[in-house]
Amino acid sequence: MTALGYARAQLQFHIKAALNVGCxxxxxxxxxxxxxxxxxxPATLDALYAAKEVLDTVAEQRDGEAGDAEQDLVDxxxxxxxxxxxxxxxxxxxxxxxxxxxxxxxxDLARYIIEYTFGEIYPRLHLSLKHREIVTVAxxxxxxxxxxxxxxxxxxxx
Length: 158
Known about the structure:
Blueprint lengths: L7 H13 L4 H10 L1 H4 L1 H21 L17 H24 L4 H15 L7 H15 L3 H6 L6
Helix pairs in contact: 1-4, 2-4, 5-6
């Protein structure tokens, strides 16, 4: 629903369902943040605003119970090296080829992908790598325009 960018009511419905089956507030937020590199910041921000409405309502209904508000803190000093390690672990040679392809035309974007997506987002708490990949594959599928990315994140991309 985050990837679609226009399905606010359905996203909120599924957020409530996720909470009903035991997902934590932070897992919901992490699933949305996970796809920010693929869906873009406008869709991600809209999804986070929609999630906040649901999470605030649920907290009020549960007598104002606090959510897990702790923040994931990732050391900024080593995010490039950490990102390379995560990218290799997750995408293998396919991820390396993507970065190499960008070196001639957009080296800063290649660095951003490594540092932000793999160095800051993937190492965050609250979602396992397996669950992050499930979310990523779902988002790339929903986008309908991310076939190369979908191939990288499935067994056909290696």
